[in-house]
Amino acid sequence: MIGTGYVGLVSGACFADLGNNVWCVDKDKKKIDSLNRKKIPIFEPGLEEIVSKNYSAGRLKFTSDLNLAVKNSDIVFICVGTPTSKNKASADLQYVFKAAKEIGKSINKFKIVVTKSTVPVTTGDKIEKIILKKKSKKFFEIVSNPEFLREGEAIRDFRFPDRIVIGSNNNKVVKKLQSLYEPLIKKGAKFFATNRRGAELIKYASNAFLATKISYINELANLCEKTGVNIEDVSLGVGMDQRIGSRFLRPGPAYGGSCFPKDTKAITVTADLYKTNLSIIKSVIKSNEKRKLLLTKRIKKILSNKIKGKKIAFLGVTFKANTDDMRQSTSLTMIPFLNKMGAKIYYYDPSGKKNVFSKLKNVFYCKNIQETCSGVDLVIIHTEWEEFKALDFKKLSKKKKFKIYDMRNLYAPGFLKKLGFSYFSIGR
Ligand SMILES: NC(=O)c1ccc[n+]([C@@H]2O[C@H](COP(=O)([O-])OP(=O)(O)OC[C@H]3O[C@@H](n4cnc5c(N)ncnc54)[C@H](O)[C@@H]3O)[C@@H](O)[C@H]2O)c1
Question: Is the CB of 99 under 6 A from ligand 1?
C-alpha cells in the first residue's frame, strides 16, 4: 500500500487480516515510526485492534522504503492523496504521479499496480506512460480499483462493501484481483469489472451523486423552515420510495470531508476539459458553499444579530462523527467567522483538540461537554457524535440558560422547548 492514510492504512490492515502479507509505505517517517510503535495516527473505530493483531502476527509491516515494499509485493496499491489543486478546482495528481515514478523504478518482476486513490478518468493511462519510461509493458498492468469506504465506518465498509469495482481490460489481472477479494465476495459483496476509465469515472459519479442527495435535502430543509413542514417527515416520506432510498437524505450543515468537496469540483473540471457541462454538479457545489453562509446567518439571527462578546459552544467540530478528519468541515468556516465577529468560542470534540484553531485568540478547546457549555449563550450541536445524543441540558445550563442550535436534528423539536430552552434545528 503506497500511502498510509485513511484509505491505505485501513485497506492494508484489513487485507492483512484476510491473511495477506502487506507492506504499508508512507513518505511521512513520523507516521511510520509511530505505527511501528503500534500507535495509530488517525481516529478510526476498530482499527487499532486490527493493526496491532496483524502487526504482531508479522503480516503487516510499516516502512518508508517504497523500493523494498514494491520489490516484495505482487500487487501495489496507490493510496496517496488527491486533494484539490492550489488555485484550481482540479485534482492535484502530483502525489500519484510521484508514486508511479518511484514504483516504476522499483519494479523487479511482474506487478499489478492498482490505483485506489480517487483519480480523474484517464489518469490510469498517464500512470502507464510514466511507468513505461522505466519498464516495458510486460512487467506491469495498471488497474483502477476505486475505494468507497467511509471514515468512521471504514472497517465495516472494507469487510462488507456494497461492491468491489475493478477497472481493467486484462482478464487475467481481473481474475487475480477477484481472488484477492474472494473472502469479501463470498460474504455477499458484488464484484463488478469494467474497463479502467469506467472504474475511474464510477468513483466520481458516485460521490457527486451522494453530494447531490445531501444538497437536495438541505435545500428542501430551507423550504420546510419557511412553510412549517418537518423535514424529517419529508425525508421519510420521500426515502420510502425504493427508487430514491432513504440514505443521505438527512439535512445538516454543508457536506464536508476529504472526498465530496474535492471530488465534485474535480469531476466538473474533467468534464469541462471534454467540453461537457455537468451543470447539476456545478449547482450542487454552489449550493453547498451557500449553505455554510446560510447557517452562519442563522446563528447570527438566533443571537439577535449581536455576536460581539457572546460565548458560543461547539459540540463537535469534525465534518462527521467517528472521525478526527477536519478536512472541509463547516466548523472551519463558522468558527473563524464568529470569532472574527467578536464571539468567544468553546469547543469539544471526542476526537480531541484541533491544531487549526490553536492560533485563533478566544477559541478554546474544552476537555468535556460540561466545561464547554458552562456559562455560554448558545450551544451549537455541529457533529452527530453518539455522546451528544442524550444530553442533560438542564444540568449543563445550571450556570446560565443557553440557546441551542441543533444542526443535526438529534432532539425532538418539542422536547427541549418544553424544558424552556430556545431550541433551533434544521428544517423543522
Ligand atoms: N478518506 C476517505 O474517506 C476516502 C475514501 C475513499 C477514497 N479516498 C481517496 O483515497 C485517496 C487517499 O485518501 P486518504 O484520505 O487516505 O489520504 P491521506 O491524506 O489520509 O493519506 C495519504 C498518505 O499518502 C502519503 N503519501 C503521499 N505521497 C506518497 C509517496 N510518494 N509515497 C508514500 N506515501 C505517500 C502521505 O504522506 C499520506 O500519509 C484519495 O485519493 C482519496 O480521495 C479517500
Answer: yes
Residue 259 among the catalytic residues: yes
**Phi, psi (rounded to 5 degrees) for 123:** -65, -35
DSSP classification of residue 85: P
- Do 302 and 295 meet the contact criterion of CB atoms below 8 Å apart? no
Mutate to test the pocket of ligand 1, among 1, 4, 7 (most ligand atoms within 8 A of CB): 7
Q: Report pTM.
A: 0.96
Residue 7 contacts residue 152 (beta carbons within 8 Å): no
Enumerate residues 6+ apart whose C-beta is below 8 A from 253: 291, 292, 295, 330, 382, 407
Instruction: Judge whether residue 130 has pLDDT over 90.
Output: yes
Alpha-carbon span 119 to 82, nearest angstrom: 7
Pairing between strand 311-315 and 190-194? Answer: unpaired
Distance from Cα 152 to the centre of ligand 1, integer Å = 16
- Pick from 224, 228, 275, 218: nearest CA to 250: 218
Q: Which of 71-75, 303-307, 311-315, 412-416 has the lowest mean pLDDT?
A: 412-416
